[in-house]
Amino acid sequence: MRTDGNDLGMPLSQDAVQDQAGMTSDRSRDPAWAVADARREMSCRFDPELRLLWADRHCASVDGDDMIGLCFPEMLPPADRAANEAAIRAIVPDHPRTTTRHRFTARDGRVTWQEWTIHGVFDALGNIVEYHALGRDVTSEMDDEERRLAAEIRLRRAIAATGLGTWEHTLSTKIDCFDARALEILGFHAGGSSGHIPAWTERVHPGDLDRVVAQWEKAAAGEGHWDCEYRVRTESGAWVWIHSIAIDRSGGKIVGILSDISDRKRAEERLRESERRLQFALEAADEGLWDFDVRSGGMELSDRSPTCWVSAAPGLPMAGSPWCTRAIRLRSTR
């Protein structure tokens, strides 16, 4: 069995790193190598003991031209060696390929990230004869991923500081997943729910259901933005008001936040009840009210305020006068 014109298992000289001794002509006839070379991908071969037998010029430009005979995992940072070697050793005839990512310190001192796809070559008895590896530099991808994860961590910390919960909806499976805080807001135990709440629409208050479903269907179809306040039945049977907002739609998912607005809704209801009682009291006492805005100079009068004040309103003193800054209640005249 021969590969690239050289006996398998025979260590090549350092000149092989520069594609000498016929390597270039052999590879030029192999479409796979030609594509790899055009894309500036790295390629190498190593024996069952993981000692490097051959490396192409792209690999040499990064790793140096004195790598032949070195153990492949030992060329990596100590923290990455064990996992890399374990992945390579796991290559067997039934699973002849693996892909690994690891850091690498280039000869100019830069720490880069590389991704290698490694294929095992076996004899008729299934014994490993050699490994063929194709690698590429993924430093920019890893840097982007690191920035994304850092941004996600900052966002989650900010969300946690505000007491908000997060949720995500997978459009293809229609499965919702909630974080621990969201489950807490909804009255569920994170350990018991595993982040999922079945039959979600059955927990929406009947008075809100049609509105919620209609708005959600538009949002899921990309025809509108999801920003909805509605009531949900908790695991204990109580009702809570929540405010749910979608903040991202990408990767086949809708991601959002939710908050418990029950206290606000109760305060709004108390305010409305207070206003109703005040209105009833004023009507019973035959009182009229007026309200003068010091900043704008505008005035509002209740239905029972005297007609004379309505006609006089345009000529009232403007902001800044002592008369305007006093709160005065007048009894209406009939």
Give me a quick take on this structure.
The protein has 334 residues and is of the alpha+beta class. 34% of the residues lie in helices and 26% in strands.
Give a written overview of the molecule.
The protein has helices at residues 23-28, 31-38, 57-63, 78-89, 139-162, 180-185, 190-193, 206-220, 262-285, 307-312; strands at residues 2-3, 6-7, 42-46, 52-55, 97-105, 111-122, 128-137, 165-170, 175-178, 227-233, 239-250, 253-260, 290-292, 299-301. With 334 residues, it is an alpha+beta fold. The strands form four sheets. Strands 4-3-7-6-5 form a five-stranded antiparallel beta sheet, with helices on both faces. The chain has a five-stranded antiparallel beta sheet with strand order 9-8-12-11-10, with helices on both faces. It has a two-stranded antiparallel sheet with strand order 1-2. β13 and β14 form a beta hairpin. The N and C termini lie far apart (115 Å). Mean pLDDT is 76; it is low at 1-29, 307-314 and 316-334.
